[in-house]
Amino acid sequence: MAKACIPWYPTIFPEKCDGCAAYGKPRCVEYCPNGVFAFIDGKAVVANPHKCVSGCAACEPLCHKKAITFPKPQFVFTPIKTEEKGLLRKTTCKNCGKVFWTNRESDLCFDCEGKR
């Protein structure tokens, strides 16, 4: 699946953020190894959005006030033909009639193929 190109960085709702007062220091600022957050005027802020790793949302569950959100992932579905990727397909053995799953070109089950 191809991921749609969307900017990826957190948003902090300042009305919800309390700077993790109960913990003594903001957990998101302490946690993020990329320096995305900063602590300004008693609240966490997104200071370096370009440093956020695309797809990472590890800091979101750390926020006890649910003040951190990320863009919702958007995916574009591109159907793949089974013959292109060797995906499993359900078929019937042309020798014994047994129904089986395979990713091979042969329409013989493993039992009948072994009897050749």
Number of strands: 8
- Average pLDDT confidence is 85
Round the Cα radius of gyration to an integer and report it: 26 Å
Low-confidence stretches: none
Largest sheet: 2 strands, antiparallel
Q: Which term fits the overall shape?
A: rod-shaped
| CATH-defined architecture of the largest domain | 2-Layer Sandwich
Whole-number tally of structural domains: 2
CATH class of the largest domain: Alpha Beta
How much strand?
15-25%
CATH-assigned fold name of the largest domain: Alpha-Beta Plaits
Strand order of the largest sheet: 1-6
User: Count of helical segments?
Assistant: 3
Distance between the termini: 40 Å
How would you characterize this protein structure?
The two termini are 40 Å apart. The relative contact order is 0.19. The protein has 116 residues and is an alpha+beta fold. The chain is rod-shaped. Strand 7 and strand 8 form a beta hairpin. It folds into two domains: 75 residues, Alpha-Beta Plaits, CATH 3.30.70.20; 33 residues, no CATH class.
Strand and helix map with partners:
Elements: E1 2-3, E2 11-12, H1 27-31, E3 37-40, E4 43-46, E5 68-69, E6 75-76, H2 82-85, E7 89-92, E8 99-102, H3 110-114
Overview features:
116 residues, alpha+beta, Alpha-Beta Plaits, 2 domains, two-stranded antiparallel sheet, 3 helices
Summarize the entry for a quick read.
The protein has 116 residues and is an alpha+beta fold. It is built from 3 helices and 8 strands; from the N terminus they run ββαββββαββα.
